[in-house]
Amino acid sequence: MINIIEPRFFEEEKQAIVQILESHKITRGEWTKFFEESFAKYLGVKYAFTVCSGTVALFIALKALKVEGERVIVPAMSFMATIDAVYLAGGIPIVVDVDEYYTMDPNQLEDAVKRYNPKVVIPVHLYGQPADMQAINYLSEKYGFVVLEDAAQAHGAEFFGKKVGSLGHLSAFSFYASKNVPMGEGGVIATNDDKIAKEVKKWIDFGEHPAFNVRITEFQAAIGAIQLKHLDERNRRRREIAKRYSESINSSFIHPTEREGAYHVYHLYTLRHKERDRIISLLKENGIDARVYYSYLLSELRGAEHLPLTNAERFKKEVFSIPVHPYLTEEEVEKIIHSLKAVEVFV
Ligand SMILES: Cc1ncc(COP(=O)(O)O)c(C=O)c1O
To answer: Is 78 exposed, middle or buried (0-12, 13-18, 19+ CB in 10 A)?
Structure first.
């Protein structure tokens, strides 16, 4: 089977793990410090706080922003953690539609902002594509809400030359095993804002008020730091494969396109087709792991209030993703292209 996602680790990671074991310093050591510094530098922000998952990164970010009883706007399409974190932090989620790039529709966002006066808006850079941060930041200045980027799927993505995760007031990343920077489990809250950083630290460091232990271990930090070093070259490979797909599979499939000004990092290569369920089973029969991300909308999943979700309702029935990870061989890429062309004849 050609896996849809396949994290790989090499000699460098193995050596680091052995070095950590031999050093007896397995938590709160140099690797964690180094990873936080490297990640902040990579994004071009002042602060990057490691936590144990992307969900916890979103949760602590929302706690730091004091969203209890406040409205928080999320897009209809994302992994469920985006909305769950809002509930867990005591916020009231409002769900808006996505645009043709599968990210928050800024036009509908403005309607929702006028109607609900949210404290926070969470654009999600879904599948590795930056949300329209120019439009969202413009609205943030106009209406005064805080922008928390959910960048769990977009390590290294850029919008007009700036890294996602550095475009809003703060951002949350995940380093779950499937992500473009995998460390098993892990997360980061990143920000340039001193006041926000201070509030975030209260939830992470013991002392000022009840806090959690949300730390990662030195093993995770080392794997993350080493994977981060190779992120740009691996994202380039993802883009190369994506280009091959969009140029070679010229048919009834709707391919992902890059938003103007965007550097898409193809965490997932997500197409659309009305017969997607039959296509997925045929691909699986051919040894290709194709999957649906996601078959639910956040509003229906958790019964949240929402605006009309015309695009998302259609997309959730049509989207499916094919392998685009950087370790695909040329033969595997060819096989995927060939299989997609072949299955089309049957549907
Ligand atoms: C968009 C999005 N947000 C949040 C998360 C939560 O991250 P984690 O699984 O590390 O808790 C994920 C990934 O799993 C995600 O894809």
So the answer is: buried
Residues 37-47: tens digit of each pLDDT: 999 999 999 99
Q: How many CB atoms lie within 10 A of CB 137?
A: 18
Q: How far is CA 245 from the centre of its chain?
A: 22
Q: Which atom of ligand 1 lies at the shortest distance from residue 53's CA?
A: 10
Q: For residue 339, how far is its CA from the centre of ligand 1 (angstroms)?
A: 30
* Domains 11-229 and 231-346 in one fold: no
**Which tens digits make up the pLDDT trace of 146-177?**
999 999 999 999 999 999 999 999 999 999 99
| Cβ–ligand 1 contact at 182 (below 6 Å) | no
Q: Is CATH 3.40.640.10 the classification given to domain 11-229?
A: yes
Is the minimum distance from the CB of 54 to ligand 1 under 6 angstroms? yes
**CATH superfamily to which 231-346 belongs:** Aspartate Aminotransferase, domain 1 (3.90.1150.10)
